[in-house]
Amino acid sequence: MAGVGFELKKLFSARTVAGHLKAYSYTAAITAGPFALLACMVFSVQALYILNGTVDESADLFTAAIVYAFIFSQIFTAGFTMVLTRFVTDCIFVHDYRHVTASLWGMSALVVVLGSVCALLFLWGKPLPFLTSLLAYLCFIQLLLVWTGSVYLSVVKTYKKLLGGYLAGTLLTAGLAAIFLHFGWLLPERNTSITFLKKAISVRLMRRGANY
Fold this sequence. Notes:
Layout: H1 4-12, H2 17-51, H3 56-93, H4 100-123, H5 130-153, H6 159-183, H7 192-211
């Protein structure tokens, strides 16, 4: 992300053990932090599903929606953020900030439009409830904006606040899931595709056993 390279260069140039440890900590926190928080959030919500006795299909559907949105949003924005990082870094280096804000709005609009087309094509014709498809789409679009905005947020070098925002979002998600499941506000939605797949596997195993 833009600005991270400059900060790491300063830390590594210190040529001290403390400076190198701090640089490695920055690198690990910025690159692996969102992935670790996502894993913690998914495991937490899955545990809440189990504690509340929710059907397995709802937990599987939730996990699939989150993981798919996270992975594909990272893949989709990878090329855009590489170009954007280079552009913002050059603007910072030459102290030219006139086009930074315009590039933020332009890139955000571009990824939303293209991402919407890809998401709609992916979800079209899938045997999913409308609400589930809508929420999965919104999650994917929001992640596109998060990865795009993180390039600019890293410029101000407030990495602790950036990771704190990710942590707050993770805790908020787990907290709301616990409240909704406890009071029954989060109704389970059955995924017909998973049900069909399970039945097909069961039938095939039964036929194979009958042949033997």
